[in-house]
């Protein structure tokens, strides 16, 4: 038996798991080890595309990383009932089962919380009020009684005991929701413009596209178990950004002008390779698609990635690295081969500039395209809401709005469809819950990942420090009159996308004594951007103690206020 396997994996090979999985595993690896078991059978079924890619990796002399071996030893969907049985005993999962649970949306959080976190799937970030209230009930019954809005316009519920994991997932099904594929090497929550369908500026309503792609993924198991995680976003061209440039695939609604080589009108521009934590934003491919083509083209892009992504080194396994190695032309040629046709390309000169973005569109009251109706953005303290607040907010949406609650990538949410006559009531009811529809220049763009309170990778308490920074700047820099995005991320995974903030902080342990004692702190980058001014920020300070960060940020902002020629000059400039 291959020496690469730990005892648990050998147990599967010896027949604990399905014989088919074991046969695939031994057969595949034999290829890379000089044979000995004869030619393996050609794989079939939904995992065949992945098995062939793994076999090719091994045949070329590569050593599959642990996660690839775990996927192959037991498909996480086929292992579901075993996972449930073991979780029902209240035990913590083994590392490989922690990975497998993530296919079902549950993440074991240890040692910080010794419980599961569940990350949902909410296409385009939009829930109905009864779903929102239902999630609050589930968080009370099975979790810690609170939820967080994430930077993918999604919800996470924490402190779910092992034996409550499956009941929580069952409850999601009752609400018409799922967490399937929300973690591990899968396509993450599908984001779309938060004000889709209500924004006068938008070119296209992203809701049907996001929902359609969400269902496309969920109904094709071959699109699970990629070389690494994968993000897709749809931007409708409206006032509120969706940060599609930080996604592996971004679809941007654009207006193609008369005189181009394709029919004038609204098309989706294809941008590829965004991964801000690796200091790269998605770049324009020159390709434009009809909106109805997005699913099929995204599917083809994924199949090229599945066949060619790196399955040996987790640090190089995102699609960006295939693009870097091949270049766009080769990658798109492979996509066209899968599709069996050429993609349309348009010279950028024939595409109208994108409409303006409003950095405050996710905060406060804004007129909808529908006469007499408004959306109202509510600020949450770095994304957190108690279950009681959620139920009350759901009631407001039902009684004063159109019943929808729209999450944004700014870790907050919007009410929509609020008549003019109800706006004041919404503001008062939100304030009574200890929340606000108004935000200072610093608080409106404050984004923080989970941090050390709930993530083992974190070097610092990002959420706690974010609130300290906001309090400090509000008290000491009242003259700040433009929105500033401050993003705090706990580690190199960059869940809070620190490289695209005006000011970005990435957790770092700061050595404070000759004995090597450390305290929490951050490396600080400045000048990042998104939307109409995308840019990766530049590091200016390393290892700043957390207690010193508010003062450093104040100094940066004072320098900006002093040096700018007008309010219109961005922090990035
Ligand atoms: Fe955890 Fe790192 Fe993501 Fe923060 S950025 S939530 S510390 S993995």
UniProtKB/TrEMBL annotation:
<keyword id="KW-0408">Iron</keyword>
<dbReference type="InterPro" id="IPR006067">
    <property type="entry name" value="NO2/SO3_Rdtase_4Fe4S_dom"/>
</dbReference>
<dbReference type="InterPro" id="IPR045854">
    <property type="entry name" value="NO2/SO3_Rdtase_4Fe4S_sf"/>
</dbReference>
<dbReference type="InterPro" id="IPR012798">
    <property type="entry name" value="Cbl_synth_CobG-like"/>
</dbReference>
<dbReference type="Pfam" id="PF01077">
    <property type="entry name" value="NIR_SIR"/>
</dbReference>
<dbReference type="Pfam" id="PF03460">
    <property type="entry name" value="NIR_SIR_ferr"/>
</dbReference>
<keyword id="KW-0479">Metal-binding</keyword>
<dbReference type="GO" id="GO:0016491">
    <property type="term" value="F:oxidoreductase activity"/>
</dbReference>
<feature type="domain" description="Nitrite/sulphite reductase 4Fe-4S">
    <location>
        <begin position="184"/>
        <end position="342"/>
    </location>
</feature>
<keyword id="KW-0349">Heme</keyword>
<dbReference type="GO" id="GO:0051539">
    <property type="term" value="F:4 iron, 4 sulfur cluster binding"/>
</dbReference>
<dbReference type="InterPro" id="IPR036136">
    <property type="entry name" value="Nit/Sulf_reduc_fer-like_dom_sf"/>
</dbReference>
<feature type="domain" description="Nitrite/Sulfite reductase ferredoxin-like">
    <location>
        <begin position="114"/>
        <end position="172"/>
    </location>
</feature>
<feature type="domain" description="Nitrite/Sulfite reductase ferredoxin-like">
    <location>
        <begin position="366"/>
        <end position="432"/>
    </location>
</feature>
<comment type="similarity">
    <text>Belongs to the nitrite and sulfite reductase 4Fe-4S domain family.</text>
</comment>
<protein>
    <submittedName>
        <fullName>NirA family protein</fullName>
    </submittedName>
</protein>
<dbReference type="InterPro" id="IPR051329">
    <property type="entry name" value="NIR_SIR_4Fe-4S"/>
</dbReference>
<dbReference type="GO" id="GO:0046872">
    <property type="term" value="F:metal ion binding"/>
</dbReference>
<feature type="domain" description="Nitrite/sulphite reductase 4Fe-4S">
    <location>
        <begin position="446"/>
        <end position="573"/>
    </location>
</feature>
<keyword id="KW-0004">4Fe-4S</keyword>
<dbReference type="GO" id="GO:0020037">
    <property type="term" value="F:heme binding"/>
</dbReference>
<keyword id="KW-0560">Oxidoreductase</keyword>
<keyword id="KW-0411">Iron-sulfur</keyword>
<dbReference type="InterPro" id="IPR006066">
    <property type="entry name" value="NO2/SO3_Rdtase_FeS/sirohaem_BS"/>
</dbReference>
<dbReference type="InterPro" id="IPR005117">
    <property type="entry name" value="NiRdtase/SiRdtase_haem-b_fer"/>
</dbReference>
């Amino acid at each position: 038996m291959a020496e690469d396997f730990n005892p648990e994996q050998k147990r599967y090979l010896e027949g604990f798991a399905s014989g088919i999985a074991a046969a695939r595993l031994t057969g595949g690896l034999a290829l890379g080890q000089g044979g000995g078991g004869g030619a393996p059978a050609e794989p079939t079924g939904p995992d065949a595309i992945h098995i062939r890619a793994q076999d090719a990796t091994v045949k070329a002399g590569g050593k599959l990383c642990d996660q690839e071996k775990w996927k192959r030893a037991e498909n996480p969907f086929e292992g579901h009932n075993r996972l449930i049985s073991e979780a029902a005993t209240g035990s913590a999962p083994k590392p490989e089962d922690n990975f497998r649970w993530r296919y079902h949306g549950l993440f074991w959080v240890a040692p910080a919380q010794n419980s599961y976190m569940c990350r949902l799937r909410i296409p385009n970030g939009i829930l109905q009020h009864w779903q929102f209230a239902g999630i609050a009930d589930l968080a009370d019954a099975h979790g810690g009684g609170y939820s967080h809005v994430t930077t993918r316009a999604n919800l996470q519920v924490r402190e779910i005991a092992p034996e409550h994991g499956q009941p929580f997932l069952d409850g999601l099904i009752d609400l018409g929701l799922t967490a399937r594929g929300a973690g591990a090497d899968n396509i993450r929550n599908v984001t779309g413009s938060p004000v889709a369908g209500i924004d006068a500026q938008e070119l296209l309503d992203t809701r049907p596209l996001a929902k359609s792609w969400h269902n496309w993924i969920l109904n094709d198991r071959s699109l699970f178990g990629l070389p690494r995680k994968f993000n897709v976003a749809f931007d409708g061209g409206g006032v509120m950004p969706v940060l599609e440039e930080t996604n592996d695939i971004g679809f941007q609604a654009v207006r193609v002008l008369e005189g181009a080589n394709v029919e004038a009108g609204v098309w989706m521009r294809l941008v590829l390779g965004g991964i801000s934590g690796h200091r790269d934003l998605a770049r324009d491919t020159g390709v434009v698609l009809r909106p109805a083509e997005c699913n099929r083209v995204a599917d083809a892009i994924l199949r090229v990635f599945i066949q060619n992504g790196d399955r040996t080194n987790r640090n190089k396994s995102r699609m960006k690295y295939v693009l870097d190695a091949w270049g766009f032309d080769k990658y798109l040629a492979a996509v066209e081969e899968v599709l069996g046709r050429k993609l349309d390309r348009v010279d950028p000169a024939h595409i109208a500039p994108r409409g303006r973005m409003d950095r405050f569109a996710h905060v406060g009251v804004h007129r909808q395209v529908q006469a007499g109706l408004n959306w109202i953005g509510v600020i949450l303290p770095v994304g957190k809401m108690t279950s009681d607040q959620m139920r009350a907010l759901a009631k407001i949406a039902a009684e004063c709005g159109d019943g929808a609650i729209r999450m944004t990538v700014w870790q907050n949410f919007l009410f929509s469809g609020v008549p003019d006559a109800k706006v004041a009531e919404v503001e008062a009811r939100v304030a009574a819950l200890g929340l606000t529809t108004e935000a200072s220049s610093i608080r409106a763009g404050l984004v923080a990942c989970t941090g050390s309170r709930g993530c083992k990778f974190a070097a610092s308490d990002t959420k706690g420090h974010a609130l300290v920074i906001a309090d400090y700047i509000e008290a000491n820099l009242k003259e700040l009159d433009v929105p500033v995005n401050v993003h705090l991320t706990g580690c190199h995974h960059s869940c809070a996308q620190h490289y695209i903030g005006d000011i970005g902080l990435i957790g770092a342990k700061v050595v404070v004594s000759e004995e090597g004692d450390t305290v929490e702190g951050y490396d600080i980058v400045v000048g990042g951007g998104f939307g109409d001014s995308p840019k990766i920020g530049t590091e200016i300070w390393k290892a700043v103690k957390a207690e010193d960060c508010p003062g450093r940020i104040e100094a940066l902002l004072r320098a900006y206020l002093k040096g700018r020629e007008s309010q219109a000059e961005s922090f990035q400039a």
